[in-house]
Specification:
two-stranded antiparallel sheet, 9% strand, mainly alpha, Arc Repressor Mutant, subunit A, 202 residues
Length: 202
């Protein structure tokens, strides 16, 4: 496991640029404590700060890369988790990405164009498929949720985003300015890859 300071730094890799409050939503820690750790990381050259937000530096990433093998040795040595991630990568993850593409673009006369969301039937089909994939992802990633509290938190955040979509707030499909389904999925995927020592392939 990572210690508290390095866990905060790890959280910063999942959002790229974040305030203490924003990281608190991701890793479920006190925002004031997070900011204290981020200030210390900035002083050590592992992060940089600007206008109240923080970004990890190459030195910070190198630091974490050196810690991950030992910190996540149990997860990386678990055949069930290795197989789960492989299935996830080749199946539901690719399907979720395809759903997001379908939400953001439409094909008109053979050419892809930004989706202006004027076709309610198209959008309804995408939302229905997202809901079905969400249910499958929750089941498939249960082994990770059991082994890793942060994955469990990501699944809970995805459930919140899905509920917002179900209630008609379509911004929660993929809006990058909020904790939309796509935003949280990206963060969770990055976390899983770092835990298991894999590289993003898309």
């Amino acid at each position: 496991m990572l210690d508290a300071a390095d866990f905060v730094l790890h959280g910063l890799t999942l959002r790229q640029l974040a305030t203490g409050e924003q990281l608190a939503d991701i890793i479920d820690e006190d925002a004031e404590t997070i900011t204290t750790h981020l200030d210390a990381a900035t002083a050590d050259g592992k992060a940089i700060a600007a206008r109240g937000a923080y970004m990890i530096t190459p030195a910070g990433r190198t630091h974490l890369d050196g810690l991950y093998p030992e910190a996540f040795a149990a997860q990386r040595g678990d055949p069930a988790l290795v197989d789960t991630l492989a299935d996830f990568e080749q199946g539901i993850n690719k399907q979720i990405l395809a759903v997001m593409t379908s939400w953001q673009t439409v094909t008109v006369d053979g050419a892809e164009q930004p989706n202006d969301h004027s076709d309610a039937d198209h959008d309804a089909k995408v939302i229905d498929k997202l809901a079905r994939l969400h249910d499958r992802a929750t089941v498939q990633l249960a082994p990770f949720a059991d082994a890793d509290p942060l994955t469990k938190r990501f699944l809970a955040r995805l459930e919140i985003a899905q509920q917002r979509v179900d209630q008609g707030d379509n911004d929660y499909v993929s809006n990058v300015r909020i904790d939309s389904y796509h935003t949280v999925w990206y963060q969770m995927h990055e976390h899983l890859l770092r835990v298991m020592g894999e590289e993003r392939d898309e």
